[in-house]
Design brief:
The complex is a heterodimer of chains A (1173) and B (114). By secondary structure, chain A is an alpha/beta fold. Helix content of chain A is 44%, strand content 12%. Chain B is elongated, with a radius of gyration of 15 Å. Classes of the chains: A alpha/beta (1173), B mainly beta (114).
């Protein structure tokens, strides 16, 4: 006899289940089980993982859900009666699974998908009843388990006799015959308590009374007893109540017995229940047999019931194809040749044609033609929307993709290998990723739904698991610790997994203080020690699902029979499956990724055309070549529109900009590490950019590939090839293996295995179990082809170590296109480009750094102005003052703290305003909103025009005073009536009296309300202090010798801890001092010295020695850091000999420099420094 | 830390149910079928640590309600009333403690010794 667990929550029951599917299946299989259920709460979140784990453990999967049911008598939208388990019947060609999917989608249909929605995930009893029968055969395909958490089970407390019977009968009346069983559970709590044996007995008797089968489960939440404590913490996180609060409610699980008990233990449990009921052996047998009978009915066939590994794509009729999809694809490729290769002939044409035939043959053999047509359809739809789109990833390796406009990269030109993307040896759908403008992404999604029909499309979801910070917060809440204290601790947790918390305490300098408290407070505050343990328990457990940032699932009209969906925050439905579930469930996922840089570039192009509305103006403003006819280049159309994709990839000023390392804002090459690398490498052409991007990966950086590459490139060391045959393969990277494509070709050259096989080999590299087979093959075949043992050894060594550091050249090429385009825009139209960057904030840095970059480039930053500022940043010709005639960037009204989207809309709609009263009347702006705009100087020009000579502080005070008065009903403006042009009486009569705000105060207001320092760089006011300390500015560093010891200071802009060779952590901190960025690196000793300053400070003073990295690059190896805002700790140099004693002078320094800086009292750490707290 | 109650020594049947106990120097025999259940512990207040894999007995402990008779036959008037006791067994350590003594009318909590 075996006993199957039919009610099991996995960790994918967020904030409820504790154990991973593979732990549960492992334990069940070890105990001799033949099947195991997965019944996650509210959905099939863990189902596909369960399926996979069951197949690995040789168990039959049982699939179901634990769902809440609305109270028939209560408010149908909010009141629940309890929860039931619903299991799908198997071996019915998916009828059970289909009904389950639809039922779960029903349960979510009324929710909003937004956090804090009031409608719970639940079904009505009617919905449940209607889904239990297959609509075609009218046979039961679902079984509902009425258990301890149902209305029936919940009514068993006290000594009520009638209520449970009434409720149970209502179930029996409402549900079709044969779809209900009673679920008997005892978690051995105190007699009479929920989940007690006494309650189990009542349920058992109730079932017997009504001749309904009873089944035994253990309502499992954790694999082993140890999980019970984790379940307690999850209950706390779910209910947002501390354990002491939950305990007194009492809302905690009554016991810790909800683990996956062994068959033997379950049978003991059954005996105990039967005995308490006063029943005999026959009844025991019946209970166990009924449980097994239900288990048998619910054994799923992954393949015939759930479509395991069977790819499904939209019906070709949906994309308007009646005939053979391959013929259609071939024809479209033909049509593309004229467009992509105008005038191609001779040998080139022959090569191109043979490549095309090769690709089409493989696509045809795999039967993927309709997949390509589907992707092409989406791609064309996006371009028709006038949205920038670019294929990324290995899809760029395909000529077919290039010809049907999915990709913009010519694979022949960059020598990209098709087999890296798709080969006859691989039957899974390839990934094609499309980057679109981030601002248009949601519109693109809606359009896809529209185009293919809502029954064929859904968004993909992603699981969000606990990481260290969230885990420590929730663990702290469970223990009832003080919020502030937890916040302080969470702030110091920096990118390590929660599971390693205790280890990190011992190692990481920034946690030293906390570690000390754990030790010290051992006796009086045991909570800290528990906090560490509970944090580790939460590590990685799923918290919730959300919309995946780019995945769209496309299927045929049966898609919603194969995945449950729920509303995403966006309103569009989202699958409960994540990316790991796609391939197993045969789902076609398209990655439509919103890329902010694409939006920023589209914005820049629109700004260029707005400011320079003709080809001639654009050509002159951007210093573009005059072209064949002397009227400007072809890629600029008559109205001034730049076709970025048509810009030739050989523009010298663009490469000059890249080599200057002033690449802030450029796609992919703006990070401190990339600025260092482009400085060293000095890219000359597009292929260099591809190599640069491919080298800047954790692998190559970690394995020291970059240094030999640069040495060969700059001719410091001769290029070496393991064998002359490999020279054509490795020449472009000077003998160093960088690309996946080179690995494929190396395999092919030395063994003659063919590229498809070679890609299979590449995928196995690094897999310990299989790699040796590849090695055997390689050595044997290479030897057979006559390569010497030395050559074979050497090449195998490269291939073997390659596993960790290779990059697909097609990826690099696809990435390099927007990299080049952004650098091109920065070189030729910096104002429009920076406006685009500010608007869409695409990069890794806080926006304030890109504002500082404009300042560095001498681009005027035009202040906020109620009549000139719009809802977006705008390039504007400066009319007067020192910058007259130049192009500047006007600040946007968007992104001001406290200004709502509708207020913003009304302000812009009502522009221009002639007075504050006019503004109030027409924009209906709140009083604090008006005051904030005044603080930011938005009324300065209006104020000046009024002729009043009071200052900004006077105006702010006036508005402040108004704020405390009661609001008068605003003046009603009658539509069409013009206000009398009286000028601004209010501004005109403003009282003078306040001292004008200082620069520091203005900058502080800007940082506070916009997180950007506009009027001047925020470090400017610290300049006297920096001079006193003897600080070197960023722009002077390049002139110093290698190894010079310096002090630098600035505001933090980037903090990174990349993985490093040897495993020792290295911390990179970049600061901005107004003249540029200083990139510093903290090795182990410096980290020890800097301790909590590493991640906890905004203004840093750093001592270090210069490291010259290339002709244009210099960085700093830090030895010590200080918090610049803690004056008393700073290393003031001793005063001159003739002056007083040191101590009094330091006091003086503290007096002089101790005043508040612009950042004082400002929160917004994440927005200002890029490091959140 | 822990529950402050009296320790007792218990002899069990192979299935785990108590048979005899030694309490305050006297031996008692279990004279009726005992009842067993589990009760929660306030582990977050009672424990210093709860590391992953700490194992059993963190969250609950086993309770046995037993009826016992004193074994001492030499005492005259031997027909003693049976006593009802709640015993707890710590799942981790296996130690037994006396939690409650019930008399005919209402349960008395075992004296707490801090």
């Amino acid at each position: 006899m075996s006993l199957t667990h039919l009610h099991v929550s996995t960790a994918f029951s967020a904030h409820y289940g504790v154990s991973w599917p593979e732990e549960l299946t492992g334990a069940a299989a070890a105990d001799g089980a033949t099947a195991l259920a997965c019944t996650d709460r509210d959905g099939l979140y863990g189902t596909v993982k369960h399926l996979k784990a069951c197949m690995a453990a040789n168990l039959d999967p049982v699939v179901g859900v634990d769902l809440a049911v609305f109270d028939d008598d209560g408010d149908h939208r909010t009141q629940l009666s309890g929860r039931v388990v619903v299991l799908a019947h198997g071996h019915n060609n998916g009828a059970g699974y289909r009904a389950l999917c639809r039922l779960i989608s029903d349960a979510h249909a009324r929710t909003t998908g937004k956090a804090g929605g009031v409608v719970p995930v639940a079904v009505t009893r009617e919905e449940l009843a209607s889904r239990t029968l297959d609509p075609n055969t009218l046979k039961p395909v679902l079984t509902v388990l009425i258990g301890p958490d149902s209305d029936v089970g919940r009514s068993m407390g006290g000594r009520k006799y009638l209520l449970p019977r009434t409720l149970f009968k209502r179930w029996l009346e409402a549900m079709p015959q044969g779809t209900v069983v009673a679920e008997v559970v005892s978690q051995l709590s105190a007699p009479g308590a929920p989940l007690s044996t006494a309650h189990a007995v009542r349920m058992l008797k109730l079932a017997a009374e009504h001749h309904v089968p009873a089944v035994l489960t253990n309502a499992v939440r954790y694999c082993e007893e140890d999980g019970a404590a984790t379940a307690d913490v999850l209950d706390s996180a779910r209910t947002l109540k501390s354990l002491p609060e939950l305990s007194s409610a009492p809302l905690l699980q009554p016991t810790g017995q909800g683990w996956l008990k062994s068959e033997k233990q379950m049978v003991e449990l059954a005996k105990e229940i039967i005995q308490s009921a006063g029943y005999g052996t026959a009844d025991l047998k019946r209970l166990l047999a009924q449980t097994e009978a239900l288990a048998d009915r619910c054994r799923m066939d992954p393949s015939s019931d759930m479509g395991w590994k069977q790819p499904v794509v939209p019906e070709t009729t949906v994309i308007g194809i009646a005939g053979d999809p391959l013929a259609e694809l071939t024809q479209r490729c033909e049509a593309g040749i004229g467009r992509r290769f105008p005038g191609i002939s001779g040998k080139q044409e022959a090569e191109m044609r043979s490549r095309l035939e090769h690709e089409l043959r493989i696509i045809g053999n795999l039967g993927f033609a309709s997949y390509f047509l589907t992707v092409a359809e989406v791609s064309r739809m996006i371009l028709d929307m006038n949205v920038r789109a670019a294929a990324r990833g290995s899809g760029a390796s395909s000529l077919v993709n290039f010809l049907i406009d999915i990709s913009q990269v010519n694979p022949l030109q960059h020598d990209l290998v098709f087999e890296r993307f798709l080969s006859g040896d691989r039957a899974t759908l390839p990934d094609i990723d499309i980057d679109v403008e981030s601002a248009e992404r949601h519109n693109v999604y809606r359009k896809i739904f529209e185009r293919f029909g809502a029954e064929r499309v859904t968004l993909m979801s992603m699981q969000n698991g606990y990481r260290a910070r969230g885990a420590v917060r929730d663990a702290g809440m469970a223990l009832g610790m003080d919020d502030g204290e937890i916040g302080e601790i969470a702030k110091q947790l920096w990118r390590f997994s929660a599971r390693k918390f205790r280890e990190a305490l011992a190692e990481k300098p920034e946690l030293r203080e906390f570690a000390g408290r754990v030790e010290r407070d051992f006796s009086e505050n045991q909570q800290l020690d528990l906090l560490v343990d509970l944090t580790e328990r939460l590590d990685r457990l799923p918290r919730h699902i959300s919309m995946h940032p780019c995945g769209v699932i496309l299927g045929d009209s049966t898609l919603l029979d194969r995945t449950p969906v729920q509303p995403s925050g966006l309103g569009l439905p989202m699958s409960q499956f994540d990316k790991h579930d796609m391939d197993p469930m045969g789902m076609l996922k398209l990655d439509v990724l919103g890329v902010r840089m694409q939006s920023a570039m589209a914005f820049a192009v629109r700004e260029v055309i707005r400011i320079h509305p003709s080809k001639a103006e654009v050509t002159s403003a951007g210093s573009h070549p005059s072209g064949n006819d002397g009227e400007g280049p072809d890629y600029i159309s008559e109205d001034g529109r730049i076709d970025l994709n048509a810009v030739p990839l050989d523009d010298e000023p663009t490469y000059e900009l890249i080599r200057s390392t002033h690449t802030l804002g450029c796609f992919q090459i703006e990070s401190p590490g990339q600025r260092e690398l482009v400085g060293k490498m000095a890219p000359r052409d597009f292929n260099d950019l591809i190599i640069d991007i491919s080298l800047f990966r954790p692998g190559p950086m970690k394995s020291d590939m970059v240094r030999p590459f640069l040495e060969h490139r700059h001719g410091f060391a001769p290029e070496v090839y393991p064998h002359p045959d490999l020279k054509p393969v490795l020449q472009e990277t000077h003998g160093v293996t960088v690309f996946h494509e080179q690995i494929l070709k190396t395999f092919d050259v030395m063994t003659g295995c063919g590229l498809a096989k070679a890609d299979e080999f590449r995928r196995v590299l690094g897999n310990e179990a299989l790699e040796f087979k590849v090695e055997e093959f390689f050595r044997r075949e290479a030897k057979a082809k006559g390569y010497s043992p030395e050559v074979v050894d050497k090449v195998w060594g490269t291939l073997k170590s390659f596993a960790s550091f290779g990059f697909c050249k097609a990826h690099g090429a696809a990435f390099a296109v927007p990299t080049y385009q952004s650098a091109w825009l920065k070189a030729h139209h910096p104002e429009a480009f920076l406006a685009g960057l500010w608007e869409h904030d695409p990069g890794m840095y806080p926006k304030r750094l890109l504002v500082a970059e404009a300042r560095r480039l001498g681009i005027p930053i035009l202040p906020l102005d109620i009549n000139r500022s719009k809802a977006e940043y705008r390039v504007e010709r400066v009319e007067s003052g020192e910058h007259a005639g130049k192009l500047g960037i006007r600040l946007s009204l968007k992104g001001i703290f406290g200004l709502s989207a509708s207020e913003l809309k009304r302000i812009v709609a009502g522009q221009p305003y002639d007075s504050l009263a006019d503004l109030r009347a027409r924009s209906r702006l709140s009083k604090p909103g008006i005051k904030r705009l005044a603080q930011l100087g938005a009324f300065d020009s209006l104020h000046r025009e009024s002729g009043n000579d009071a200052n900004r502080a006077d105006l702010v005070l006036h508005l402040q005073n108004l704020q405390s008065r009661p609001t008068k009903k605003g003046v009603d403006i009658i539509e069409g009536q013009l206000a009398l042009p009286l000028g601004d009486v209010e501004l005109n009569n403003l009282q003078r009296g306040q001292p004008a705000p200082t620069m520091v105060e203005n900058v502080r207001a800007e940082l506070d309300l916009m997180a950007v320092d506009v009027s001047e760089h925020l470090m400017e006011s610290h300049r006297p202090l920096l001079n006193r300390l003897g600080v070197t500015t960023a722009d002077k560093l390049l002139g110093l010798r290698n190894g010079t010891e310096v002090l630098v200071a600035g505001v933090r802009i980037a903090t990174q801890t990349p993985p490093m060779r040897g495993g020792r952590r290295v911390v990179f901190i970049s600061i901005d001092d107004g003249t540029g960025c200083v990139d510093s690196v903290f090795f182990h000793e410096a980290q020890e010295l800097a301790g909590p300053l590493l991640f906890g400070t905004r203004l840093l003073l750093i001592r270090g020695t210069t490291r010259r990295t290339g002709p244009r690059g210099i960085s700093l190896s830090a030895s010590m850091a200080w918090d610049l805002s803690r004056i008393e700790t700073l290393p003031f140099p001793p005063p001159d000999q003739n002056q007083d004693s040191t101590s009094s002078s330091i006091d003086e320094d503290q007096m002089t420099f101790g005043q508040a800086g612009p950042l004082d009292g400002i929160g917004r750490n994440l927005a200002i420094t890029g490091l959140g707290s | 830390m822990g529950i402050f109650s009296e320790g007792v020594e218990v002899e069990c049947a192979p299935g785990g149910q108590p048979l005899n106990l030694l309490w305050a120097g006297r031996r008692y025999t279990v004279c009726a079928e005992p009842v067993r259940w589990f009760e929660r512990r306030q582990w977050w207040a009672e424990e210093k640590r709860a590391p992953l894999g700490a194992g059993k007995g963190l969250v609950d402990h086993e309770i046995w309600r037993v009826q016992v008779k004193a074994e001492d036959e030499r005492v005259p008037g031997a027909s003693q009333e049976p006593l009802t006791l709640d015993l707890s067994r710590d799942i981790g350590s296996g130690r037994w403690r006396l939690l409650r003594i019930h008399d005919a009318l209402q349960p008395k909590t075992a004296p707490k010794t801090a």
